[in-house]
Amino acid sequence: MTDDTPPEDAPRCSYCGEPFPSERLRALHRGLEHYDRLDDDERAAYEDAYRAEGEDLRSFRLRALAVLVALYFGFLMLYAVVAV
Ligand SMILES: [Zn+2]
Fold first, then answer.
1. Residue 10 within any structural domain of the chain
2. Domain region containing 57
3. Which residues are 19's β-sheet partners?
4. Cα separation of 24 and 55, whole Å?
5. Please, where are the H alpha helices in 1-84?
6. Is residue 76 part of a domain?
């Protein structure tokens, strides 16, 4: 049995009531879905969350690239050892 009901204290969107696992995700949702209705503080929170998300994404891409390069050379060396 899975329990998909969000906890009672989950941050909820004040416009549509949708629950989110973190304040940052709620700020992103509000900026994307209800941008016209946000006040200045909510827009600032959205812009901060958007910027932080961009930095996380850049860091993830770098780490993913490093893993791919390591895998590529790992298999290349394995091939060189096994296939000769
Ligand atoms: Zn909403």
1. no
2. 23-82
3. 12
4. 14
5. 23-33, 40-82
6. yes
State the average pLDDT for the chain: 93
Measure 68 CA to ligand 1 centroid, in angstroms. 37
CB 30 within 8 A of CB 19: no
Please tell me the distance from the alpha carbon of residue 3 to that of residue 29, in angstroms, as a whole number.
23
**What is the distance between the alpha carbons of residues 17 and 61, in angstroms, rounded to a whole number?**
33
Residue 51 Cα, ligand 1 centroid: separation in angstroms? 20
Which tokens belong to 79?
């091939």
What's the domain count of the chain? 1
Q: At which residue do the structure tokens 């000769």 appear?
A: 84
**What is the C-alpha separation between 84 and 19, in angstroms, rounded?**
58
Prediction pTM value: 0.70
